[in-house]
Design a protein that fits this description.
The protein is an alpha/beta fold and about 375 residues long. The protein contains 15 helices and 13 strands. The strands form two sheets. Strands 3-2-1-4-5-6-7 form a seven-stranded parallel sheet, sandwiched between helices. The chain has a six-stranded parallel sheet with strand order 10-9-8-11-12-13, with helices on both faces.
């Protein structure tokens, strides 16, 4: 009879309210190691809709207003330690990037670095003095402190690792580099009707939040350059949520150049429909100036589509030679790349083949296996 104690991993999922945070946890917990018995407690807010169908995972809803970041900080500092002791947690895993408490004796702490903007001064300076600037300043301090105190840090790109090792004066005790995976839905998209969301075909799609560091204004400038030269592109679709102050600049530029029929702001589309959105495109555009692990780029290449991509790190780390690069800060260069891909059918086919081949290096199975191994190693279990 095996009386060996199960390794109890306590995951703080307060920050996984939607989007990438939930996608990461769902895929991580979907691929728990079969050869090792783990007990997982997933701690979420009372308003969370996160669901995991696995008998090894217990979802613990906290009946306290932790959606408020200030109240959450107080609760984590003063109440979480006793909860960890009560549950006899072996490991506290905080994938959101901040460890807001001192783990009790015998409980190891692990965090993850996901948000690059607090450590990117070029991008931070684009925001006006106020709430956003203050938020990123605070995140820089708290995230770096968490990583320096943690017993293990998971980086999701080599570029991110180098940024933090350079920024840290105290040093990082222990770390691993484990990129995110790609969902199978992107490699095998369904044939479904998305005409109510996108009533176009053969478009160029750029999926991302409309925000300062995503270069939508520069793309509008690039389209105008091409239009002045008589170059006609398929419609460019901006798919994603809006950052209010910046989206006004994007709309003003579109109106100034009379590009209302050339560039469409679609807004957010349900994540499960995105594989079809990519499938129906002519090619994909990704112009972000700052990323940690570019999930959208990974999903784009997995969709077997040609991609025109930002050349800023860490994009080349993931795209390698499977995408065509440009400087997202230079509209003329964006225009050249868009025109080149659009007019060269053979180039599109070549990039599609290279992209899909490169995407096979990333899977949630691999990501999960390496993550559970990294966590288990803290208790001498592999």
């Amino acid at each position: 009879m095996n009386n060996k104690k199960k390794l109890h991993i306590f995951i703080n999922a307060f920050s996984a309210r939607r989007g990438g945070g939930q996608t990461y946890l769902i895929n991580l917990l979907k691929h728990l190691p079969k050869e090792q018995e783990l007990k997982i407690t997933l701690m979420v807010s009372r308003t969370s809709n996160l669901q995991v169908n696995n008998s090894q995972v217990e979802i613990l809803k906290i009946d306290f207003p932790v959606d408020n970041p200030y109240l959450r900080a107080l609760w984590e500092k003063f109440r979480l330690p006793s909860l960890l002791s009560k549950f006899s947690a072996d490991i506290l895993f905080c994938p959101g990037g901040i460890i807001g408490t001192k783990a009790p004796k015998g409980c190891h702490s692990v965090t993850m670095f996901r948000n690059m903007i607090p450590f990117d001064m070029e991008q931070r300076r684009k925001y006006r003095w106020g709430k956003s600037r203050l938020r990123y300043w605070l995140l820089h301090r708290t995230m770096l402190s968490s990583m320096e105190k943690a017993e293990h840090v998971i980086f999701i790109s080599n570029y991110a690792k180098e940024v933090i090792l350079k920024a840290s004066k105290k040093g990082i005790k222990n770390y691993s580099v484990i990129p995110h995976g790609i969902g199978e839905a992107f490699t095998h998209p369904k044939d479904e009707d998305i005409s109510t969301d996108i009533p176009y075909k053969g478009y160029i799609v750029y999926t991302s939040t409309i925000d300062r560091y995503k270069s939508q204004v520069e793309i509008v400038e690039a389209v105008n350059i091409l239009k002045q030269k008589g170059v006609t592109l398929p419609k460019i679709l901006f798919v994603g949520a809006f950052e209010e102050n910046y989206v006004d600049q994007v709309i003003e530029k579109i109106s100034l150049y009379r590009l209302e029929e050339d560039i469409k702001l679609i807004g957010p589309i349900p994540y499960e429909k995105m594989p079809t959105v990519y499938k129906n495109s002519k090619f994909i555009l990704f112009a972000s100036q700052s990323e940690n692990c570019p999930n959208i780029l990974l999903e784009s290449i997995a969709s077997k589509k040609a991609v025109a991509c930002s050349n800023m790190p860490p994009m080349p780390e993931f795209g390698k030679d499977s995408v065509l690069y440009f400087d997202p800060r230079k509209p003329k260069q964006i225009a050249e790349i868009l025109s080149t891909i659009n007019e060269d059918y053979r180039l599109i086919k070549d990039l599609e083949e290279k992209a899909y081949k490169e995407s096979t290096n990333y899977s949630w199975v691999k990501t999960s296996q390496r993550t559970w191994q990294a966590l288990s190693s803290l208790k001498g279990i592999s």
